[in-house]
């Protein structure tokens, strides 16, 4: 009896061992299957996240480059240089003396004229404010003298101004001391006869740059690690881990940000939580996933620094497939276990696996097609302006750089023009923004009808357009854009009211052997300034060896 019992005892134990082995093996198989799904999902989402962050970085760099060009151009103008050179005797005498100093400066005719010039330049350039600061740190002229008057204010305490008063280009994020509005401050040093006489300071409000963080999870941080702009506004004002803001004194924080406390934003590896939820994920893969504050799902984190500024672009992109992957793992484990535990269900399991693989293949193919479509759409949006069909500003600037390199290599001439529709705001105000859109479209259609196939037109912003004329000398280019200007007046748009007359001011210049894109555009801008100051609806040409508008008096009073 005892002997028979001993021989039968291993039966239940063997069965239990087989069940345990099947469960263990099915877990290993399920791990492998879901790991493949995870790898595919990570590859697809990482490509999309990198594309989004790269696009953010390009847009930030492009916008800042355009904003820097305005104060840098003004710093080269004689009217600015002479105004600062003549104001070197004005110095700080304490905050109590600022009202008296302001009254004195406002009565100086030259500085009043310069303030009017800065006001017009602000409206033309899209900047929020432009100031002239002499070498003593005193604001002697301002574009916003009629609203927030900073004339007579000692601005030496502004961080963005320190480098400019030492002769270097300055740029920093800050919060206005009187307005309380955040923005990017840009300062360009001004020299007169080789002597540093002050700086041109411009402010671009953060509200103008919200398109930087159009995608969910995107945010921008400054050089001190402070989040200055985010798709989720609740993140703004938080500090990144190890940000330099932690080493700044309370006085420095208050001077720059008008606040002292900066809560930490936690962006940290999600490895421990991921391994707790899904131990089947390899440690190397789990180390690539991050969590942010109170958001439980793992996410991909991408950042780009060195955007030719102190700013950095960031994206915390939650892994969209994560909940489904967890569900798939449990399901796969059970299915494989049933397959190994009973041959009766083998055909059903094989069929289910086949259907599942087909579904996985179709999902992967659909995801690839969606990614390709998204990339194609992003490429088209980056190349053309959605409203007018003209080249986008970024693509036009890239084309300009390529044409300059080709022209400098071949020795052929190249003309660059900047056109601005006159009194465009009045069209919007009188007939509505839809009529304004039709006016912009009509101008681009007129350009296409008048220009060659090898010429290019791009929308630089608002009602301002750039025109590129390869293999064209200045005199010929002036004739071309003059014909374009006359045609715009002679052939009105049928989509606009008869009383909505259109005219355009155009500034054109020719490439010189030493020109960089920024210098060529600055010279075209100066020519456009001259056309505007000359009464609008006209063309002004600036030779390649010139650095100021053709009509000095007109440029000074514009």
Q: What's the tally of helices?
A: 17
**Counted beta strands:** 16
Strand order of the largest sheet: 7-6-11-10-9-8
Instruction: Name the average pLDDT.
Output: 83
Distance between the termini: 117 Å
The profile of the biggest β sheet is:
6 strands, antiparallel
Helix content: 40-55%
Query: What is the structural class?
Result: alpha+beta
CATH superfamily of the largest domain: Reverse transcriptase/Diguanylate cyclase domain
The whole-angstrom Rg is 32 Å
Domain count: 3
The third-level CATH topology of the largest domain is Alpha-Beta Plaits
| CATH architecture assignment name of the largest domain | 2-Layer Sandwich
Beta percentage is 15-25%
- CATH class category of the largest domain: Alpha Beta
Which outline best applies? Answer: globular
Written account of the structure:
The chain has helices at about 1-10, 10-75, 80-85, 100-105, 110-125, 160-165, 250-255, 270-275, 285, 320-340, 345-385, 395-410, 425-430, 435-450, 475-490, 515-535, 550-555, and strands at about 130-135, 140, 170-175, 180-190, 195-205, 220, 225-230, 265-270, 290, 295-305, 310-320, 415-420, 455-460, 465-470, 505-510, 540. By secondary structure, it is an alpha+beta fold. The protein has 3 domains: about 65-205, 2-Layer Sandwich (Beta-Lactamase); about 210-305, no CATH class; about 395-555, 2-Layer Sandwich (Alpha-Beta Plaits). The strands form 3 sheets. The chain has a 6-stranded antiparallel beta sheet. Strands 2-1-5-4-3 form a 5-stranded antiparallel beta sheet, with helices on both faces. Strands 13-14-12-15-16 form a 5-stranded mixed beta sheet, with helices on both faces. Strand 13 and strand 14 (about 465-470) form a beta hairpin. It is globular, with a radius of gyration of 32 Å.
